[in-house]
């Protein structure tokens, strides 16, 4: 391969994982130093790790160690300034959010500062284009309308999740068929939820220039709380400060060994860990998102300070801190010995399969809960009750139950059609 950066692809059926790796043998320039900044009170001020601005006043901002869009909650305040965060950090984290959106949305990951995940455009194996909403509902990417002229009446089938859109489409049909009774059609209109008959065909990759920088920045954000100095992190900082997409990444997609000694198998986690290894004269970082997306980072070379390690891990679904132990002794002493295989290693395949199993189980539970809740609400409306009512009068219970089961029928049918796992 020629060029400044080697790129390898893992191809797994419809899933791709792109690995962009750096090399450890190249020398990099140390980060330029500067004069010490002082606060107006005379106290020493912390300086942004990416520029010379002092971290005082409006320059101070909270920076998530793990991007909040994928469930990070821990923030540090003595790392980068507001300008660097908004001009660079936000762009890098947006790419991480985009790459992992399916996992975040399907598993109902709790965003660091709240809010909903954006819709994700997906496609089934049969070619149907849909959008996955944050509430697990799949909706057509574009509304569809089919008109069947039966002579004495029109049969109209509309696929949309928006009642207003449905009414607009009925009005459009009426313009093409002047004799069509719009009000009568609206009175006779019935709705039914449908479920996928064809599996989703997903394409996935992580890393690259933008997301790679975000993952490296996660290591530095955690490192800022350890007492380490920017001068010890020249390799990582040189990468972050170089805007070129061809800048040499200081990281490897790492599956030579499993660094997690107590890896959970039943829940999702994100992890960032940093270690100072004076024996090897280096500072390393390790990032793992969603149990499988793993990189090993060479943060700095020539380190001669005290040995240290710091780790932050979180379950992004319930936002609880996770107990994760990272063993950097499993990393080869010579980073040049790390090689990217041409085919996906078994460790990657197993990890991706485990993540898929966990996310699918969470998604199934959410779909079931959504179906039951919607059926109950629609049944309340059908019997003339407020959809927020908590109790059903005794005289309406049988009618409500019939309506509830009728509304739930599409979901039950879909479950009966599922192949046993």
UniProtKB/TrEMBL annotation:
Protein name stated in the entry: Integrase
Species this protein is from: Massilia oculi
Highest taxon in the source lineage: Bacteria
Annotated region described as Disordered, given as residue ranges: 21-42
Residue stretches making up the HNH endonuclease domain: 48-101
């Amino acid at each position: 391969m020629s060029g400044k950066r080697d790129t390898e692809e893992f191809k797994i059926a419809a899933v791709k994982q792109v690995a962009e790796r750096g090399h450890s043998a190249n020398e990099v320039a140390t980060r330029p130093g500067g004069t010490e900044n002082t606060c107006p009170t005379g106290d020493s001020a912390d300086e942004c790790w990416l520029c010379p601005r002092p971290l005082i006043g409006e320059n101070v901002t909270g920076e998530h160690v793990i991007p909040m869009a994928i469930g990070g909650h821990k923030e540090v305040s003595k790392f980068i300034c507001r300008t660097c965060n908004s001009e660079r950090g936000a762009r890098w984290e947006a790419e991480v959010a985009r790459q992992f959106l399916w996992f975040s949305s399907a598993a109902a990951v709790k965003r660091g500062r709240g809010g909903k995940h954006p819709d994700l455009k997906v496609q089934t194996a049969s070619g149907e284009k849909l959008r996955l909403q944050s509430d697990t509902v799949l909706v057509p990417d574009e509304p569809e309308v089919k008109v069947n002229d039966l002579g004495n009446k029109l049969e109209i089938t509309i696929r949309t999740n928006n009642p207003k859109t449905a009414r607009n489409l009925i009005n459009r049909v009426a313009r093409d068929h002047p004799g069509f009774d719009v009000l009568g059609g609206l009175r006779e209109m019935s709705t039914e939820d449908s479920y996928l008959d064809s599996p989703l065909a997903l394409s996935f990759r992580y890393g690259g220039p933008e997301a790679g920088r975000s993952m490296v920045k996660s290591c530095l954000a955690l490192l800022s709380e350890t007492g380490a100095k920017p001068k010890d992190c020249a390799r990582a900082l040189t990468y972050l400060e170089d805007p070129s997409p061809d800048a040499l990444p200081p990281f490897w997609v790492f599956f030579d060994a499993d660094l997690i000694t107590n890896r959970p198998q039943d829940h999702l986690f994100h992890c960032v860990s940093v270690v100072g290894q004076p024996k090897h004269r280096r500072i390393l970082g390790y990032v793992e998102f969603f149990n499988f997306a793993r990189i090993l980072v060479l943060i700095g070379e020539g380190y001669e300070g005290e040995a240290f390690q710091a780790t932050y891990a979180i379950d992004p679904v319930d936002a609880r801190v996770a107990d994760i132990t990272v063993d950097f002794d499993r990393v080869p002493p010579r980073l040049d010995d790390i090689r990217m295989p041409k085919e996906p290693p078994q460790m990657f395949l197993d990890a991706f399969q485990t993540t898929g199993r966990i996310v699918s189980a969470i998604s199934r539970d959410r779909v079931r809960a959504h179906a039951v809740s919607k059926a109950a609400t629609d049944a309340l409306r059908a019997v003339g009750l407020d959809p927020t009512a908590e109790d059903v009068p005794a005289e309406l219970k049988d009618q409500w139950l019939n309506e509830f089961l009728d509304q739930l029928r599409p979901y039950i049918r879909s479950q009966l059609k599922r192949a046993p796992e």
